[in-house]
Design brief:
With 232 residues, the protein is of the alpha/beta class. The chain is built from six helices and 14 strands. A seven-stranded mixed beta sheet has the order 3-2-1-4-7-13-14, with helices on both faces. Keywords: Isomerase.
């Protein structure tokens, strides 16, 4: 069996798992390799692991893999969170949310002692922005929120940016697990991601955006014949 770059990164992240840990489970095709691998590791090594999924999809995968899931309370210590990304910059800043899970992913990444990103080489970029930035917005007044986004982005030098409400193949709006809409913003190039994240999250109606700035402790990129690990 040939190992894909995504799987290679996921297998490397499994090396960070220790008995007794509470682990955040990311969302997407790369995180799925980690979840399946974690299930195998728990069975083979008899580990005591509790996990918190960042989406209904990852919840279902984890249950299938036999991983014990918990709902965190205020005392919960999340030792490790492992998740994929849509783009990873040289500084370790991320774009996430291609699978509409950005809010739950950010809540868990923010709470985790160690946030590890796993990705294939195609996700590694010098500057964020080629991947349309997912922005999660409240359904109420969504058209007004889109207008406010457009106005703010124009003021920040992103005039005429294409903003689209995400639809599925049947033409219905895509909803996040929390029931919100997702707007994809084709920015092309994000020069100041720190300022942009703050400006986006200040707009009433914006629940959160897919910029994860300075959050990753470690990025593991699967390559053709190994891994490239970056620590921040
Ligand atoms: O909302 C989805 C997540 O942010 C994913 O982690 C991201 O889209 C990467 O997914 P994949 O590993 O499938 O490329």
């Amino acid at each position: 069996m040939s190992t894909s770059q995504k799987e290679r990164a996921a297998l490397a992240a499994l090396e960070l798992v220790r008995d007794g840990m509470t682990i955040g489970l990311g969302t997407g095709s790369t995180a799925a390799f980690f979840i399946e691998g974690l299930g195998r590791k728990i069975r083979e090594e008899g580990l005591e692991i509790e996990a918190i999924p960042t989406s209904q999809a990852s919840d279902a995968l984890a249950r299938k893999a036999g991983i014990e899931l918990i709902i965190p309370d205020e005392t919960t210590v999340i030792d490790l969170d492992v998740d994929g990304a849509d783009e990873v910059s040289a500084e370790g800043h991320l774009i996430k949310g291609g699978g509409a899970a950005l809010l739950r992913e950010k809540i868990i990444a923010r709470a985790a002692k160690q946030f590890v990103v796993i990705a294939d080489e195609s996700k590694s970029v010098t500057e964020l922005g080629a991947f349309p930035l997912p922005i999660e917005i409240e359904q109420f007044g969504f058209a007004l929120t889109v207008r406010a986004l457009r106005d703010m982005l124009a003021g920040e030098g992103h005039e005429g940016v294409e903003l689209s409400l995400r639809h599925n193949e049947e033409g219905s709006f895509v909803l996040s697990d929390g029931g919100n809409f997702i707007v994809d913003a084709k920015l092309g190039r994000i020069r100041e991601p720190v300022a942009l994240e703050s400006a986006l999250n200040m707009i009433p109606g914006v629940v959160d955006c897919g910029l994860f700035i300075g959050m990753a402790d470690q990025v593991i990129i699967g390559t053709a014949d190994g891994i490239d690990t970056r620590r921040y």
